[in-house]
Specification:
The structure is a homotetramer of 226-residue chains.
Chain A: H1 3-40, H2 47-54, H3 58-64, H4 68-79, H5 84-92, H6 98-114, H7 118-128, H8 133-160, H9 169-188, H10 190-193, H11 202-217
Helix pairs in contact in A: 1-2, 1-4, 1-7, 2-3, 5-8, 6-8, 6-9, 6-11, 7-9, 8-9, 9-11
Chain B binds a DNA duplex (21 and 21 nucleotides) through residues 11, 14-19, 21-22, 25, 46-48, 56-63, 66-68.
Organism (chains A, B, C, D): Caenimonas sedimenti
InterPro entries (chains A, B, C, D): Homeodomain-like_sf, HTH-type_TetR-like_transc_reg, HTH_TetR, Tet_transcr_reg_TetR-rel_C_sf, TetR_C
Biased composition (Basic and acidic residues) (chains A, B, C, D): 7-24
Chain lengths: 226, 226, 226, 226
Amino acid sequence: MSLSKLMGERSDEGQAKRERRKEARPGELLDAALDLFVEKGFAATRAEEVAARAGVSKGTLFLYFPSKEELFKAVVRENISGRFAEWNAEFEAFEGTTADMLRYCMRVWWERIGATRASGITKLIISEARNFPDIAAFYQQEVIRPGTELVRRILQRGVDSGEFRALDMEYATFSVTAPMIFLIMMKHSLGACAPQDYPLDPERYVTSQVETLLRGLCVRPEDQPA
Amino acid sequence: MSLSKLMGERSDEGQAKRERRKEARPGELLDAALDLFVEKGFAATRAEEVAARAGVSKGTLFLYFPSKEELFKAVVRENISGRFAEWNAEFEAFEGTTADMLRYCMRVWWERIGATRASGITKLIISEARNFPDIAAFYQQEVIRPGTELVRRILQRGVDSGEFRALDMEYATFSVTAPMIFLIMMKHSLGACAPQDYPLDPERYVTSQVETLLRGLCVRPEDQPA
Amino acid sequence: MSLSKLMGERSDEGQAKRERRKEARPGELLDAALDLFVEKGFAATRAEEVAARAGVSKGTLFLYFPSKEELFKAVVRENISGRFAEWNAEFEAFEGTTADMLRYCMRVWWERIGATRASGITKLIISEARNFPDIAAFYQQEVIRPGTELVRRILQRGVDSGEFRALDMEYATFSVTAPMIFLIMMKHSLGACAPQDYPLDPERYVTSQVETLLRGLCVRPEDQPA
Amino acid sequence: MSLSKLMGERSDEGQAKRERRKEARPGELLDAALDLFVEKGFAATRAEEVAARAGVSKGTLFLYFPSKEELFKAVVRENISGRFAEWNAEFEAFEGTTADMLRYCMRVWWERIGATRASGITKLIISEARNFPDIAAFYQQEVIRPGTELVRRILQRGVDSGEFRALDMEYATFSVTAPMIFLIMMKHSLGACAPQDYPLDPERYVTSQVETLLRGLCVRPEDQPA
DNA sequence: TATGAATGAGCATTCATTCAT
DNA sequence: AATGAATGAATGCTCATTCAT
C-alpha cells in the first residue's frame, strides 16, 4: 500500500466527491433553474433561489453563468433535444399502418417529452417567447420545425398509402401538435394550480385525442378506429 | 338653446371634458396594461410603461389602481365578461345539425375571443397562473368551467341525436378546446415573434381543425365532411 | 322690499354663509393642521388629511397656504400667544405673597395653555425643532424668552421680598418651567398612547409640583406649605 | 508561531477582516440611525442617509434590517438595556441619607443617560410615540415603569426614615423625573438649534434642580440643603 | 373661489451582479 | 473554486403641488 494512500486516501475520496460535484454543478444549477423558470417565469425567479435549490451560494451561480439571461438560455439549450435525427430514423423504419405509427408517435411523445421535465421547456418558451425572441427563433428552428416536419412526413405517408384522405398539409400538422402542446401548457399552469380541477390522466387524454384524430384522418370507415 | 342649458346644466358641461377623461382613464389604463402584460408578462411590465402607453403619468396609474397586482386582476376581470349565458341561449336555440353547430361554435369563438384582445387574457393567465393562483382559480371557475360545459352540451347533443358516436365525454371536450387554446398561445408567443414562421390564416386553421374533428366525431360517413 | 331681495334673498343668505365660511377657512385649516401635526408630526401628516378634516378639498388648502411648510409656520404663528404683555401686567398688579403668585401662575398656565390646544404647539415645536430651526428660534424669542422672563420676575420678587432664598436665577426658572413642559409632552405623546398608564389628574399634578417647589424656594419654615 | 496558527486557524483569520466588518455593521447602522432619527425624526430620515453615515450603501442597510421601521425598533431596543436591576441593587446597597441618595441618583442618571446618546432615545420616543404606539407601550413597560418604580422606592425610603415629609407618592415621582426629561428634550430640540440661547451647564442644572427639590421634600430645616 | 384630476420628484425596497476573502 | 457581504441600478408607490375647469 502506497504512502499516499495511507496518508491521503480519505482526502482523495473527498477530492473525488468534490470534483464529481464540481462537474455536476452546472447541471444541478440548470436543473434547479428549469424547475423555477417553469414554475414562476423568468422575471419572477430570483437567482438566489436557483442557487439555493442547487445547494450552492449565489456567487457560485455566476461563476458558471455570466448572467441570469445566459442561465436561461443555457437551460433552454440544455433541454432542447436534438433527437429528431434518431426519431426520424425510427419512423423511417416503422413497419405497420400509418394509424399505428401516429398512435406510436403520440404515445412516445408523451413518454419522452410530455411526461418528463423537458415539457417544462415548451411551457417556458411559449410563456417567455416575447421577452426572448432569439430563444424563440432558436426553438422554432431546432424543435418546432423538425417536429412539424416529422409529423408532416407521417401524415404524408398516410396520404400516400391511401390510408388518410387528402389533407391541407400546412394545417393538418396542427391537429397532431395542438393537443400535445395543450396538454403541456395545462400541466404546467392551470393544472399545477388546481390539480383537483384537472384530474387529467394523460394516457387517456392521448388515447382520446389520437383516436378521434385518426377517425378524422382515415379515408375508409373500416380503417377507422372503433 | 337646449333644454339642458335652460335648466342650468352648464356646470355639467363645464366638467364634461375632464370628467369624460376621468371616466375613460381606467379603461385606457386597462387597455394599455392588457397589451403589455400579454406581451411581456406581469413581472417584466413596468408600471410606468403602462402609464406612458395610456398617455398618463406614473402617479395617475396609482390613482385608479392601488397596486400593480390589483391592476393585473382588474385587467383579467375586465376582460372576462360572463358571456356564457348569452352563448348558452344562442346554442339552446340553434336549429340545425350538431356538426353545423360545432362549426358555428368555433367560428364564433374565433371572432369573439380568438381574434380580439380577449385572447390575450388566456395567454396571460396560462403564463402567469403559478404566480397568481387565486386569479387562476377565478379563471377556472368563471371561464374554463362554463366554456367546457358549453362544449360538452354541444357534444352531448350530437351523441343524443345519433350524429356523433359515443364519446369519452370527459376528454372529448379537449378535442374542441385544445386547438382553440393552441391557436391563442401561438398567436401571442411564437407567432408574435416570428410571423414569417407562422403565416397562420386563422380561418383556414379553424376550418381545418373543425372539419377533421367532425370526421372524428360523426358516426355515419355520409354525415362527415367531404 | 327690494327686487334684489325678492330675487336673491336665498342666494344672499347662501352667499353670507359661504362668505362666513370663506373667511373661516384658514382658521379651520389651521385648526385641523394643529391637531394633526401634534398627533403625527409634520412629516407624517398628509396635506390631504388636513384638508379633509377641515372639510375642504386638497386644492383649497394650497389656495390659502402656499406649501405644507408655510402651513406649519402659520399654525405655529397662529397659536403662539403674544399675551405676555397682558400677563406681565396681571402679575405686576398682583397683591399677595409671591408663593400665592406662583400658585396662581401655574394654575393659570394650566388653564390657559396646558389644558388648551395651545399646548399642542409646545409639543409640536419641541418635536420638530431640528427640522425647523427658524421656527424654533422664533418660538425661543416669542415664547420661551418672555415666559422665562416672567417666571424670573416672579422668583425675583420672592427673593427681593425675603420670601424666597437666594437662587441661582439662571437655573431656578427651570424649576417652574420643567414640570409644565413635562406635563405637556406627556399629555401629547406617551399619555395619548396609553391613557391607562397615565391617569394624570393635571390639577393634582400642578398642585403637587408647585407645593413641593415652594417648599424648596421659601426661606422660612413658617412660609412653607404644610 | 502562534498556537492558533499551528492548529490551522488561518482560515479563521482569512475571514477575519470581513467578518469583523459583518459583525460591526448592525451596530454601525444602529449608531447612525440613532443620530439621524433623533435629529430629524423617523419620517424625515432617509434610509440612504443612514447607510451613508454608516459608511455603507443603501442595499447593505436592508441586508441587516428588513425595513426602516424595523431599523427604528432595533434602534430603540438596542439602547434600552435593562440596567434597572443593576441600579436597583446599587440603590438597595446605598448607605447614607436619602438626600444624598437622590443627589447621587440624579448625577448618575445624567452621566449614564442624559449625557450619553441614550438620551436621544427618550427624545425620539416622546416625539414619535403617536406614530409607533407599540414602541411607546414597550418603552412604557421597559423604561418608564421601572424607572418610576426606582424613584418611588427612593422617595419612600426618605419618607420611611423620617427624612422626607409625607408625599402624594403618585405625583411626587414626577418631581424627580420631570426635570430630567425636560433637560433631555431641551438638549435634543431647542437646545440643539440655538445653543447660544441654551448655555445649559447640565451639572449646574442638575444641582439646582436637586437641591431645590430636596428642600421641598425634607421635613426638617436642618436636613435641608443650605 | 373651490375642486380634484394629474403630475413627477422623492423615497423604500429588491435583486442581479461583483469581488474580497 | 466557492462564498456571501456589499453594491447600486431599477422599480413600485407616495404625496406635495399644480392647474384646467
